[in-house]
Amino acid sequence: MTIPQTKNNGNGTLVVIAIGGNSLIRDGEHMDVLDQYRAAGQTSQHIAPIVNKGYRVVVTHGNGPQVGFVLLRSELAKGVLHQVPLANCVADTQGSIGMQIAQSLQNAFLQQGQRQEVVAIVTQVVVDPDDPSFSNPTKPIGPFMSEAEARQHEKDDGWAIAEDAGRGWRRLVPSPKPLQIVELESIRKLLDSGTLVVAAGGGGIPVVYKPDGSLRPRPAVIDKDASSCLLACELGASVLIISTDVNKVALNFGTPEQQDIDRMTAAECRQYLDEGHFAVGSMRPKIESALTFLEKGGREVIITQPHHLEGALHGIYGTHIVP
After folding, report:
1. Is the entire prediction scored with pTM above 0.70?
2. Phi and psi, residue 139, nearest 5°
């Protein structure tokens, strides 16, 4: 049986869809690999229709919880096997989550009787070796813990820890600013050929240039939304969609005065950011990336849940941020 190619011919409007690592985990009872695979499959069902409408798509994804799982396994096995460096944990999760998303997307198209090339690229991202985050870790990774559990890790393992937006305590690691996507031209060529690309997973593998021009990994986790913004800007994307675990951005989040936002300008968004409405470990990096994308020529940023992706792109769901 011949399966027809989808409408994605490499000439449509470019959309970058950033899937949060936590949105691949529904709750504390559904955290294993099979559950994450199912979540990736559900999200893919909402991405495929976007491609079918002629959009070119790049998918990025988070990996905060998953990197935490790999590090925990490494810690538990340290008496038997060598420990896994943080940069390798990022590469491991890029490969595993990228495979899940790519395969789920291919299956979603197949269910519609269509064929779409999907490629997941293990992506390196250049950072500054003197980035201040290396001496001041701020990026939360791994599962949520009680304060007592977090304090014990702080005491026993030397972890930097912090409370994360009212949802629990998490480990903190360095999160340097992304400067350059190493595989950018390969991604661009794949897009031009009509391929749906999964890239910059978990913010990318942090690397630095040595004086001789060679690359070396650094122990850090780059913010997924910052790398997604960089990739979207470098590729000239029109729309950046940040898929997360809330329907809309809100003011006074989690309080009786919570106010969901349907639409705001970059100026309004900047005002709310300056007023402290967006938590550092949660919505703030998404908002900062949204503003950067718009300042560098992006047309629109949409923030919403995975199952609202298609409707959000057509103005029905989510928070829409415009210049």
Report:
1. yes
2. -90, 115
Tell me the domains of the chain and their CATH numbers: 14-129+177-322 (3.40.1160.10), 139-173 (no CATH)
Closest CA to 249 of 200, 283, 201: 283
Is residue 58 within 8 Å of 237, Cβ to Cβ? yes
The pair of three-digit structure tokens given for residue 315, joined into one six-digit string: 């103005």
- C-alpha 150/C-alpha 160 separation (Å) is 9
pLDDT tens per residue, range 82-122: 888 899 999 999 999 999 999 999 999 999 898 899 999 99
pLDDT digits (tens, 9 = 90+) for 30-78: 567 778 778 788 888 999 999 999 999 999 998 877 888 888 888 788 7
Active-site residue list: 21-22, 139, 224, 286
Which residue type does 140 have? P
Q: Take residue 126 and report the two structure tokens written for it.
A: 């250049």
C-alpha dist (Å) from residue 19 to 97, 211, 306: 11, 35, 8
What one-character DSSP code corresponds to residue 102? H
